[in-house]
Amino acid sequence: MAALMYATGETQADLARGIGITRGQVSRKQGGGSRGSLWSLADLDRLSAHYGIPVPELLRGADHAVSLLPAARRAECIGGSQTTLPPG
Fold first, then answer.
1. DSSP character for 34?
2. Cα(68)–Cα(31) distance, rounded to whole angstroms?
């Protein structure tokens, strides 16, 4: 999700509002199993609708999902400000 958020210019708060969960839930889900929360099938359905990408395509990997983002969902200037993505 971090790659999609970066490509669209969204923050965790933006994504949370877009899929109807809290920013804290997004943060925990991005952290994965080690932090106690995983993306559910219902979450994937909401993410699919939010980004306009079918669920199976979301699951094929970050680069693939980003390549399928509709033009209207892409940020005008990706990386226009200094952003650090955690390794992973």
1. G
2. 24
Render 46-65 in DSSP notation, one character per residue: HHHHHHT--HHHHTT-HHHH
* Residue 84, helix vs strand vs coil: coil
**Percentage with pLDDT > 90 across the chain:** 65
- CA dihedral (84, 2, 27, 12) in degrees, to 10, reads 90
pTM summary value: 0.79
b/e sequence 53-86, b meaning 16+ C-beta within 10 Å = beeeebeeeeeebbebbeeebeeeeeeeeeeeee
- Token pair 């970066």 is found at 6
Q: What sign does the dihedral 19-20-24-29 (CA atoms) show?
A: negative
Beta carbons of 15 and 5 less than 8 angstroms apart: yes
Q: How far apart are the first and last CA of the chain?
A: 12
